[in-house]
Amino acid sequence: MNTFNIVWLRRDLRLTDNTALIHSLKSDNKTVVLFIFDFNILDELDKNDARVTFIHQQLTKLHKELDKINSGLLVKTGEPLKIWQELISDFEVGEVHFNRDYEPYATQRDEQIQQLLQKNGIAVFSHKDQVIFEPHEVLKGDGTPYIVFTPYKNKWLEHFDPQQIKVEKKLETDSFVSIDSSLPTLEEIGFQKSEIKVQEYDLSEVDNYSETRNFPALNGTSKLSVHLRFGTVSIRQIVKQVYNQSPDFLSELVWREFFMQILFHFPRVVNENFRAKYNGIQWRNNEKEFGRWCKGETGYPIVDAGMRELNQTGYMHNRVRMITASFLCKHLLIDWHWGEAYFAKKLLDFELSSNNGNWQWAAGTGCDAAPYFRVFNPTEQVKKFDKEMHYIKKWVPEFQNLNYPAPMVDHKMARNRALETYKKGISG
């Protein structure tokens, strides 16, 4: 039996500029590319989850690419530890390469599998791939993590050298193991095809990003976040492309890494407020009101438009994400965890660190959050960012009809109630 390497894909669903793959192909051993449908993750999802459909479609593309060079993708389903136990008992594995993930479940899983492989005498190599800087690479002078964005960003930019960013495009075509394998169907892994589709990313508007970013009716967003989330494009390729085009767009990419390092250094944020002084807030948590927010039936057209866009497409414009999140936490006084969980279920680009960080930002409980007394006025937000109501008309066509609901809560009353509740919670 010949010895071969395994490259384990997770959040890096591409063959070009994939760090783990590049390193594996430098070895004398040939390489097998592996993907595991992890039941620990899949068991939490709805059976028509659009993200699983997207992953399956991407794996099909990769399988076809490998098939052209007489190889193929090895796809397994189940619990990763058991699958790795089977692989190393069935095959002569020389090296295992994977790209690092920084979320709590992933780090725990990877450590467990690394120990298993090392006990069995298999060399394991993990690589930096989904970020420009890892959580330990951008730190304060005293070695502690940044908890405010702007100083973090300044240090990030100080470290960053565009000349050092290399994007690998070539594949060594004779370095893959020739395997005859077929992918399991969606149905075989317990899922069904979703009607919601992931759009291709488009960087053609990056030059105008600063002018267009806040207007949801404009085609000013790149649709890039889903592709970064699943690694269908390399962050190095993107940063190299946009570095000189738009400081604001680059800043959004730095925010992504800021929240990743917050989650890595402070994993408690998954279940807790980053700032403990907000633990005393008495959320109202009215389930009926939460249901209206989820459906986009609040009587505030900009909020309803955002929630309907999310429900129907898996996308929501970033400005509208801020408005809908603020409305839930401040106007309805519903715990940010509820909104975070709903977004986690619906967003195509759901990433634990960004979702958690942005929800805590909106609620005022996070590391670099909007102050608690900042309460978005949904009506004023429409005047600023959807003056002609093109976005609202698209998603809430009935907003001027008699059957459209009246606002479920008065803005002034809700704002005052939120300020009182926050003050009481913080001092209590």
UniProtKB/TrEMBL annotation:
Positions with a binding annotation for FAD: 209, 221-225, 249, 252-259
GO biological process: nucleobase-containing compound metabolic process; response to light stimulus; response to stress
Marked site positions, Electron transfer via tryptophanyl radical: 283, 336, 359
Domain Photolyase/cryptochrome alpha/beta intervals: 3-132
Entry annotated with the keyword Protease: no
Required co-factors: (6R)-5,10-methylene-5,6,7,8-tetrahydrofolate; FAD
Key words of the record: Chromophore, FAD, Flavoprotein, Lyase
Keyword Flavoprotein annotated: yes
GO molecular-function term, one example from the UniProt record: deoxyribodipyrimidine photo-lyase activity
UniProt xrefs under InterPro entries: Crypto/Photolyase_FAD-like_sf, Crypto/Photolyase_N_sf, Cryptochr/Photolyase_FAD-bd, Cryptochrome/DNA_photolyase_1, DNA_photolyase_1_CS_C, DNA_photolyase_N, Rossmann-like_a/b/a_fold
Cofactor note: Binds 1 FAD per subunit.
UniProt similarity note: Belongs to the DNA photolyase family.
Name of the protein: Deoxyribodipyrimidine photo-lyase
Originating species: Draconibacterium halophilum
